[in-house]
Request: fold
Amino acid sequence: MKAWIYTLVAAALIFFVFLDVFILVVIGMAPTMGALVIDRSSRRYFTMTVAFPNGVGVLPSAIKLFSGGSGGVDAALELVSDPIVLVTMYAAGAVGWVIYYSVPPFVAVWLSMQSEVRAAAIKKRQKALIKNWGNEVRIEAEKLLPDDVNVSKLLGETVDEEDTDSTGEKM
Reply:
């Protein structure tokens, strides 16, 4: 709630003191405002992902507005009516949208691969422990597991069909 109050205070100050910058920011940050409307998460990750690149796209125009002297509202309207300036601001916002929608699948694949590598390392460690401590440790550990867990299957061992009974247990 405090963040919204601070944002509204800052917007009011910019509106009354720097109306030209306010016009530029409102028009240039349209992709961010769209993300704000769509984003329903509590932390607003989507909005932030779009806002930062969009702000970077608006920044050169704001600098141009300040460096040109006090052009006022006319200078701001002239800037936002330039197609190149609008494309720059909106393309930067589009970069945020692309990042938000394209990065999560890559992260999911990476995490999946990482978990598979960890699982393989754990299986290798389990086999080494059974080799060092003997099969008795494994038998005792199997007693503590639920009935539907097959340790041989978890360790990637193959079980001969002749050596098992109808329930899949070794004889």
User: Anything to note?
Assistant: The two ends are 66 Å apart (CA to CA). DSSP finds eight helices and no strands in the chain. The chain has a mean pLDDT of 87. The helical segments are 2-17, 19-28, 30-38, 45-67, 72-80, 83-133, 135-144, 151-154.
